[in-house]
Amino acid sequence: MLKQSDQFVKIFFSLQKIFYTFNLEVKIFCFFSHLRLLYSRF
């Protein structure tokens, strides 16, 4: 039982890390697309 929960914790942390990096990439992408829109106006 303890071993299973330990495995679950490892999976949870790896998923959290993947989600965090994905979220960061999305924010960067939104930021750059926003900059492109601003530059295209000028």
Describe this structure in words.
With 42 residues, the chain is mainly α. It has one domain (1-42). It contains one helix and no strands. The protein has one helix at residues 2-41. The longest helix is centred in the middle third of the chain and has 40 residues, at 2-41. The termini are far apart. The mean pLDDT is 90.
Number of strands: 0
Our measurement of the CA-to-CA distance between the termini, rounded to an integer number of angstroms, reads 62 Å
Strand content: under 5%
Q: How much helix, percentage-wise, in residues?
A: over 70%
- pLDDT average, as an integer? 90
Identify the overall geometry: rod-shaped
The run of helices and strands is H
Low-confidence stretches: none
Biggest sheet layout: none
**Derived structural class:** mainly alpha
Number of alpha- plus pi-helical segments: 1
Our count of domains comes out at 1
Rg value: 18 Å
